[in-house]
């Protein structure tokens, strides 16, 4: 399935999401308040930070005891020892992209992310990724579809750095009702798999921005995609330990 054009709109203003909030309700209310009417097949791209806050995936530094490994990592990167310990606890392995970082870590769910997807909250604590991003995407899809009566797809997007360059991009960590891979073919018959949900997340990332810009939701319309609940986890080389 190819796409020759599509539209993308940010849903702004969006209310501040607080720990334990019903994110689906916040989304549907923001859609109504901004006059953003959904259409069948729209793809809602939601920043993972909003999902993490709603799911209360917070760890205060006061509950963390850094190990010697975390202390050493803190010395090399300049990050708080408690934050380094959280990153280590959330990952199965890691390396530094340069002598002082960033930390590139294999999250225990199988994602390779900067700092294992851990989002620093100043000097107070840190936000973890959603416990099961694909399940979170499905739950949001179900609730939004029930509330609006419009079948939609959902992609949960996370900002991520690359080991070979400065700056951040956006990737998908969860998806519902949209296949994570797209297979394209050339006139010569060569076939290539593309991480389609990453392309979708990156397109929305132009609107969502990075580091708390305040636009956690974008609606993409006109995308041709295969409906599927396969989820992003299915295409990871290393999946959750319990699934291997």
Description:
- By secondary structure, the chain is an alpha+beta fold.
- The chain folds into two domains: 7-57 and 132-243, CofE-like (60s Ribosomal Protein L30, Chain: A); 58-127, Alpha-Beta Complex (CofE-like fold), CATH 3.90.1660.10.
- It contains six helices and 13 strands.
- The chain has helices spanning 23-33, 48-54, 68-77, 81-90, 133-148, 196-208, and strands at residues 7-10, 43-47, 58-60, 91-96, 103-107, 112-114, 119-121, 125-127, 153-162, 165-176, 181-185, 191-195, 217-221.
- The strands form four sheets. Strands 1-13-2-9-10 form a five-stranded mixed beta sheet.
- A hairpin with a 2-residue loop joins strand 9 and strand 10 (165-176).
- Helix 1 (23-33) packs across helix 5 and helix 3 (68-77) packs across helix 4.
- The chain is globular and about 50 Å long.
- The model has no long low-confidence stretch (mean pLDDT 93).
Layout of secondary structure:
Blueprint: E1 7-10, H1 23-33, E2 43-47, H2 48-54, E3 58-60, H3 68-77, H4 81-90, E4 91-96, E5 103-107, E6 112-114, E7 119-121, E8 125-127, H5 133-148, E9 153-162, E10 165-176, E11 181-185, E12 191-195, H6 196-208, E13 217-221
Parallel strand pairs: 2-9
Antiparallel strand pairs: 1-13, 2-13, 3-8, 4-5, 5-6, 7-8, 9-10, 11-12
Helix pairs in contact: 1-5, 3-4
